[in-house]
Design brief:
- The mean pLDDT is about 80.
- Helix 3 runs antiparallel to helix 4 and helix 4 crosses helix 5.
- The chain contains five helices and no strands.
- It is about 65% helix and about 0% strand.
- With about 130 residues, it is mainly alpha-helical.
- It has one domain.
- The radius of gyration is 14 Å and the shape is globular.
Length: about 130
């Protein structure tokens, strides 16, 4: 498990995610891996990497958006962030890492692709 977290964290060293946020992402990843209600057995490396990609891409996007990420009369900011996290997981599942590409370069490429997609989906004025 530690090796997977190390590979995932190494994949996004060019981002602006602080060490504190990296630890929070790693904690969320471990919580997800150990959640019996979500996973009947321990997820494999590809599933774990894809989930981590979703967590990291969402965190990067949310951090970049900062205070510009606001809700509206229909959706609160917290609900918007939940939606971003859910969307990010759907995008990450499309990374299709089951073919064995769980190296840092493949993960970094998937994170970058996820962040770009989130920027398009949640750009200001877009009803997401």
């Amino acid at each position: 498990m530690r090796e997977i977290v190390d590979v995932v964290c190494a994949a996004q060293t060019t981002s602006d995610i602080a060490s504190e946020e990296q630890r929070a992402i790693a904690g969320k990843l471990v919580d997800w891996m150990m959640d019996d209600s979500l996973n009947s057995e321990l997820p494999d490396a590809a599933e774990t990497a894809e989930h981590a990609i979703g967590l990291i891409a969402a965190e990067i996007f949310i951090s970049e958006a900062g205070d510009t990420l606001v809700g509206n009369d229909e959706v609160s900011r917290d609900e918007l962030i939940d939606g971003i996290n859910e969307t990010s997981q759907v995008l990450a599942a499309q990374a299709n890492l089951a073919s064995g590409a769980t190296d840092a370069a493949s993960i970094e490429k998937a994170i970058t692709k996820g962040v770009r997609a989130l920027r398009k989906i949640y750009k200001p004025g877009n009803p997401a």
